[in-house]
Design brief:
This protein has helices at about 5-15, 20-25, 55-65, 80-95, 105-115, 120-125, 130-140, 145-150, 175; strands spanning about 30, 35-40, 45-50. The chain is mainly alpha-helical. It has a three-stranded antiparallel beta sheet with strand order 1-2-3. The longest helix has 14 residues, at about 55-65.
């Protein structure tokens, strides 16, 4: 499925629920100037999804491959079942078990909590949660992360959540996420 990898990378960069890019996101919702995906009707209602540079790069690559797309066309013309199958095959090939697509949302929320030093209003906007209580259910900071920061050190990128302090839009990282110009 040629859409699985860009979809999963976009979910990691935006903390979107899988239904948001698959079911709701259309090309006409991408506000390139604001760098926001304006979802008029997502799972929890209207929502503006902030797009970091990596998310913009992913969408630009998809747009260039889509060619002359129409505003009402889905950004990801595939199904959840097809993406789930690709996820399962990839997971098995890596020898991993008990890892689900939805875990990307937890990883993303944790990553942004570390990057933005626990700025809950930022993280709440990124994840689209209505309450701080829900945001907190998605952030999984470990005691070791806290101790590292307490002692004035940076979180070890090798032990941090996927994508931490990395721009997946960088040309040097594109082959690893399947986006080529």
């Amino acid at each position: 499925n040629k859409y699985a990898l860009p979809l999963l990378a976009l979910m990691l960069e935006t903390a979107m629920r899988s239904c948001e890019p698959l079911t709701y996101a259309r090309w006409g919702h991408v506000n390139w100037g604001r760098r926001v995906l304006e979802l008029p009707d997502a799972e929890t209602g209207k929502r503006d999804v902030p797009l970091n540079p990596a998310a913009i790069a992913i969408l630009e690559e998809l747009a260039s491959k889509a060619g002359d797309y129409q505003p009402d066309e889905h950004i990801f013309p595939t199904t959840y079942e097809a993406v789930k199958k690709a996820w399962s095959q990839s997971r098995e090939a890596c020898g991993l078990s008990n890892i689900h697509i939805h875990d990307i949302r937890h990883t993303s929320a944790t990553r942004y909590a570390l990057e933005y030093k626990g700025n809950l209003p930022f993280i709440q906007v990124i994840t689209g949660h209505k309450t701080v209580t829900m945001v907190m259910r998605y952030i999984n900071i470990k005691a070791d992360d806290v101790v590292t920061v307490m002692h004035g050190k940076e979180v070890d990128e090798d032990k941090a959540p996927a994508g931490y302090r990395k721009n997946l839009g960088d040309a040097s990282l594109r082959p690893s996420i399947g986006i080529h110009r």
